[in-house]
Structures are given as C-alpha cells and as structure tokens.
Amino acid sequence: MLTQDEIKQLVAKQAAQLVQNNMTVGIGTGSTVYWLIMELGSRVKQGLFFRAIPTSKKTATLCAQQNIPLAALNDVTALDITIDGADEIDPNLQLIKGGGGALLQEKMVAAASRELFILADETKLVRQLGKFPLPLEVIPFGWKQVQRHIQATYNVKASLRTKDDQPFVSDHGHYILDCPFNKIEHPGILTYDLNAIPGVVDNGLFINMADMVLVGYADGRTETLQNNTAES
C-alpha cells in the first residue's frame, strides 16, 4: 500500500503529462503541487518549454528553483490549464480550498483558465462539503466584525488562523478565518452570501470551477472524475 506522499507523487507525475510545449499553465499551492513542480522541473531539463502562473510566493520560489519560466497573471489573456490540489471534493466536484492560505490567487488563476485539473488522494473525497473548516480571506481591519457576523448568522465559531503565535498573513496582506460549518447544504448560495459580508475578500468554496479531478488510491490505482453537473 502506498503512503500519502507516494500517492501525491503518483498523481503529480501523471498530471505533469498534461503540460505540453508552449502552454501557459497555472500552478497551484500545497503539498501535492510540490511534487507536480518537481516533475515539471525534470521535464524542463529534458526540453519542455511552458510558462507558469504561480498562485503563491511559495509556488513561485519552487518553480524558479526548478528553472520553470514564470509569468504574471496580468501578462496573459487566458491560461490553457491550471493544476492544483483541494482540501475537500464533493460528488459534483465542488471544492473547498485554501488550507495552504492561497485561496484568492488560486481562485483568480483558476477563473482565467480554460480547464481546472485537481489532484487529490482518496481522503479528500467527501459526500458533503464542510468537515474541513472553510477558509475566509478577510481584511485585517475589522476582522472581528466578520467573525461576529459568522457566529451570529450561521452559529459557526470562526477562528483566526495563526502561524508562530501570530495571525497568518496571506501574500496580499490579509487574514484568514477558518469556519467549521461541518455540513454545507448549498455551497453555491453560501459562497455568494459570504462574499457579500463587508470585509470578506473571498472564500474557499470553488463552485463549478473544477473540470476534472485525478484521484490517487493507496493500492496504486488512479481515477479521473469529470464534472458533468452543476450546483446552484
């Protein structure tokens, strides 16, 4: 049986084959994407040329270390594909993302892409979103007002994400509130309502964005899931 790291390497190696010469590719953030970058770096050494749009400073650094050419989102019209991970995936391929703290850039890059291809191991597949705390990226000014609003409206106690006993700060200087909804009945409605709260920059629900999900299993199998449904 494969370890979780071995599963991540398995799906990353398979997904790297999607990248072809002269493509513009969004590169996500997280532990699975790390192995994707390593595999793409090996292919670059063998002659592959493509442009990467990183979704975080961490991803940009890893790509640069592998001599993968970088471009800015403002410098391109559209991306051929974005490859990223996810924290939860429901049967309709709706996602929770943002565990790595890069949800805003991840969503912007995904929205500019012709396809969003998600990498995951079987533990990320769920019947219903919500067990993984939903991240909200918020402006530091007045973040407690957002926290109180979430508590009052949804009876959910949002916690401020920290790092080294200090508030975690995103690449754009924002804080993140992690919201344990437990069960999200209507993710499409919730994402709209959350983004309407003053002070919320965006949330970790990725609704009708994923085109395909490559799932790796401990027995060495992989499975590709395709999105044929929509959530409203």
Automatic annotation (TrEMBL):
Taken from the UniProt entry, a GO cellular component term is: cytosol
**Which SMART domains does the record associate with it?**
DeoRC (SM01134)
Name the chain's protein.
Ribose-5-phosphate isomerase A
User: What reaction(s) does this enzyme catalyze?
Assistant: aldehydo-D-ribose 5-phosphate = D-ribulose 5-phosphate
Q: Which family does it belong to?
A: Belongs to the ribose 5-phosphate isomerase family.
- What's a GO biological-process term for it? D-ribose metabolic process
Native organism taxonomy: Bacteria, Pseudomonadati, Bacteroidota, Chitinophagia, Chitinophagales
| Active site location | 106 (proton acceptor)
Locate the residues binding substrate: 29-32, 84-87, 97-100, 124
The family database entries (Gene3D superfamilies) matched by this protein are listed as: 3.30.70.260, 3.40.50.1360
Transmembrane portions of the chain: none
Enzyme Commission designation: 5.3.1.6
State the pathway, as annotated in the record.
Answer: Carbohydrate degradation; pentose phosphate pathway; D-ribose 5-phosphate from D-ribulose 5-phosphate (non-oxidative stage): step 1/1
Q: What class of enzyme is it?
A: isomerase
InterPro entries linked to this entry? NagB/RpiA_transferase-like (IPR037171), Ribose5P_isomerase_typA_subgr (IPR020672), Ribose5P_isomerase_type_A (IPR004788)
Role:
Catalyzes the reversible conversion of ribose-5-phosphate to ribulose 5-phosphate.
Q: Oligomeric state and partners?
A: Homodimer.
Q: Name one Pfam family in it.
A: Rib_5-P_isom_A
Q: Please provide the record's keywords in A-Z order.
A: Isomerase
One of the entry's Gene Ontology molecular-function terms is: ribose-5-phosphate isomerase activity
